[in-house]
Design a protein that fits this description.
It contains two helices and 18 strands. It has helices at residues 2-13, 42-46; strands spanning 19-21, 35-36, 74-89, 92-111, 114-136, 139-161, 166-187, 195-217, 220-227, 231-240, 245-254, 257-268, 271-281, 298-307, 322-331, 343-355, 360-371, 379-394. It has a 14-stranded antiparallel barrel. The longest helix has 12 residues, at 2-13. The protein is elongated.
Length: 402
């Protein structure tokens, strides 16, 4: 009975003109375990999300552990993300603003040409909240659907040089988090009791990843990464308030494998041009265990340019600023309820402000973009993201020369 009512409500909810979005972070985050993140630090976001083949002695890597070979001092990096989303479903508009941790990492050298790192980043996020007025068997009711939570990724990385050309890295990923989804139905007629279903999913799992960075020329670097298809254990606790029942089910969900490659071209000390290509691969026609939504092989491309007028310490502060510009486009790992692909596209810009004789960096980035398309998808979202972070380094440990 309850499931039949829910199916009717979901169908009615998608009819034009009856949906009211109250605080929807993203309509698309209700699929699977939510919206996937792409392992970006602050400076990489301004660079179009590019980070597989880029090189830097001060920017900590979140995707390719082989880049740790460039870090020679103990360094800390942390950032926060602010996002505002304008959502359009048919002719109905909604808005949401949110702030979350974007990245945290501590890195220190452990031996000649090798460094160790640990940190934390969101792997995926769920945030939506919307209501609709429906008619169920001639009785009017207000339906609300909401979800909140995230899957976090903690990581331990080790990376270093094999020789003067090739660097490698390896890491372990620890996934953990909780996602809560609630469905409520409140009849306008007081003779009917309201009902609600609450689902809390507790997630945990372990995965591994590998990375490589090669210097093909003094001006050209290429990189590659691989992330295993980690198995996520999901303990799902469902509370059916209408029937005063509780159901606990344990399931396993496979995260998609990630393959990525990138390159950076550095014609001089003032300019870096880079691009990335990534694939999140899932089995054909596979459905996620939480929502039954069909999975899709997601792809992401990124292109970025970094410009620093002067790298000399005695130059004026304005000339030592680093300006980042980029573009990124991707598809989501789940099809929408109509079986259509959902894509994202963003223009990005960033500013890095060095201080403490270039050993520390204040990073700011901004992104403008859209997710989904109308009429291909039922919803389109316009987003502005602002990320602020700081990175600093100290000589806790001295790496011996080779």
């Amino acid at each position: 009975m309850i499931m039949n009512i829910k199916r009717i409500c979901i169908v009615c909810m998608m009819l034009p003109g009856i949906v009211t979005i109250s605080h929807a972070g993203s309509i698309y985050s209700q699929s699977g375990i939510g919206l996937f993140k792409f392992f970006s630090g602050t400076n990489n976001r301004g660079l179009g999300g590019v980070r597989i083949g880029t090189i830097s002695a001060t920017k900590l890597p979140y995707l390719n552990p082989a880049n740790l070979s460039l870090i020679t001092t103990t360094r800390f990096d942390g950032s926060f993300l602010f996002e505002q989303t304008d959502i359009s479903i048919f002719n109905v508009e909604g808005k949401r603003a949110d702030a979350i941790l974007n990245s945290f990492q501590l890195t220190f050298p452990v031996k000649s040409s090798f460094s160790f790192a640990f940190g934390l980043q969101p792997y995926s996020t769920t945030a939506y909240d919307y209501t609709s007025l429906i008619n169920n068997d001639g009785f009017e009711a207000v339906q609300s659907v909401s979800g909140a939570g995230s899957l976090q990724r903690g990581f331990l990385n080790l990376g270093g040089k094999i020789n003067n050309i090739i660097s490698v890295g390896v890491g372990t990923d620890f996934y953990f988090g909780r996602v809560k989804k609630t469905w409520r139905l409140t009849y306008l007629d007081s003779q009917f009791f309201p009902t609600a279903d609450e689902n809390q999913s507790f997630l945990s799992g372990i995965g591994v990843h590998l990375g490589m960075l090669a210097r093909l020329h003094k001006k050209l670097y290429v990189g590659a990464v691989y992330y295993s298809a980690a198995t996520i254990n999901i303990e799902n606790k469902a509370v059916f308030n209408f029937g005063k029942e509780t159901d606990i089910v344990t399931k396993d969900e496979k995260l998609p494998e990630i393959f990525g490659m990138g390159a950076s071209f550095i014609p001089n000390n003032n300019l870096q041009i880079a691009f990335d290509y990534m694939v999140q691969a899932s089995k054909e026609n596979e459905q996620d265990v939480l929502t039954g939504r069909q999975k899709h092989n997601a792809r992401k491309i990124g292109f970025g340019i970094a410009v620093q007028p002067s790298t000399k310490l005695l130059s004026s502060p304005l000339k030592r600023l680093i300006y980042n510009f980029g573009f990124t486009a991707s598809t989501m790992p789940y099809l929408d309820e109509r079986g259509e692909v959902v894509d994202e596209r963003f223009f990005t810009a960033g500013l890095s402000i060095p201080f403490a004789n270039g050993k520390s960096m204040l990073d700011l980035s901004i992104e403008f973009g859209k997710r989904g398309r109308i009429p291909q998808n039922n919803a389109q979202e316009s987003m502005i993201r602002v990320v602020a972070g700081v990175g600093t380094g100290e000589l806790w440990f001295l790496r011996r020369k080779q």
